[in-house]
Amino acid sequence: MKMWGGCFRQPVDAEFQRWQSSFPFDRRLLSYELAASVAHARALRNADILSSEELIAILQGLEQIGAKAASSSIFTEDEEAEDVHHFVQKQLASLIGEVAYKLHSGRSRNEQIATDLRLYIRARIDQLQIDLTEWLEVLLERAEQAEKAVLPAYTHLQRAEPVLVAHYLLAYVEMFLRDSGRLADCRKRLNLCPLGSGAVAGATIALDRRAMAADLGFCGPTANSIDATSDRDFVLEFVNALCLIGLHLSRWAEEMLLFSSEEFGFVQLPEAFSTGSSAMPQKKNPDLLELTRGKAARVIADANTLMIVTKGLPLAYNKDLQETQEPLFDAAITISGLLPLVNAWMKAAQFNYGRMRQAAEAGFMNAWAAATYLVQRGVPSALAHEQIGRAVQLCLDKNCGLEGLSLEELRSLNPVFDTDFYACLRLESVLAIHDVAGGTAPSRVRQAISDATHRLEAIREEIHAHA
Ligand code: ARG
What we know:
This protein is mainly alpha-helical. The protein has helices at 14-20, 23-26, 30-46, 52-71, 84-96, 109-145, 165-190, 209-215, 225-230, 233-260, 287-310, 325-348, 353-361, 367-375, 381-398, 407-413, 421-424, 427-433, 442-466, and strands spanning 150-155, 158-164, 192-193, 220-221, 267-268, 350-351.
């Protein structure tokens, strides 16, 4: 039996019917649809619409549908089902007979889909938080293993200053900690239950909305039925949070790509996550990284689609909203698929600390530290900058580093130069002068690793509380 059609004199066009069906993709929501239906059925019993026997029959039927879906992949191949809500009604009727049709009392698919989507996203967030903590753990582990290793930090993709490898990796830790925070925020805001909102004006039966919300683990019911049935902000928030994860992963991938090129030689590609060329026998291609960089595009496109679909939509439910489902699923699946893979890549990749150090020692990356030497001896910073600039010029002519200049040459630029200048040029001294919170001085980096480890622990506790 269809869910509507009593007032129709003509049959619906078969092709249109197939085309408008969302079941090919919203069957993904089946377990949430079943859970929400259980909560609704219990509320119907409390409102005396169902007898205890009817409630039991419905609950058993819903459970059976769940079990069948879990054990058979063809169970959800159903061309007649218009959507996941219709599918459940059809299956329930075939299992328990006419009493199945009582389940839809007082409710609308508009509130059901809004509820299912919230439950789906909440579950995805909980899994993503686990994946993100594991990814953060790998980054932190690698930061710890790096100990005193250094590499150049770049600005404008030109060598700028040497930093600890750990400090560099902690930059990514910050990005992904923010991503985790964004997902947690999104979860907080979406954790309200639309059940009882009806089609637009509220349920037509006095259902206990608090009880339904509690049954489904929501903090409480949504406040306004018009908003609850038309709101997809939580989908947009979630997918935008995924965009940033994708974006951060793509930046990481791009750097690993550069670093693994012969020209940099900082990172060795793990063969288990690389491919070969069918033409050039010598090639080892970093496909995992390239695809990671590429996949960010589809998530960004998904977020874009969602904004375009919802922009300018009048209240309340419009069928356009069905078009929010596939971009949501695509974005969620894309990011969920990526995280375990980048994690494994990072565990397997080898860092070539020797090459990194070589690069960190070349290219006048101690020039700012050299200028600071002058500033600390009272030279105005703009003049110090100018004088070290001229010292660099001299070195370029002589084809040496700043340490290759004699004291006389230095004193021709500024008489305050003394023999202790040479010590401040050493890589370790350059690192050490960045002795501020968040800077690359080794003690600061050790502190930062420990702080990040505690923040990660707090996320784990929150995950635990939701489990
Ligand atoms: N498949 C629909 C969607 O995803 C479910 C809600 C249908 N509501 C309606 N009034 N036709 O939005």
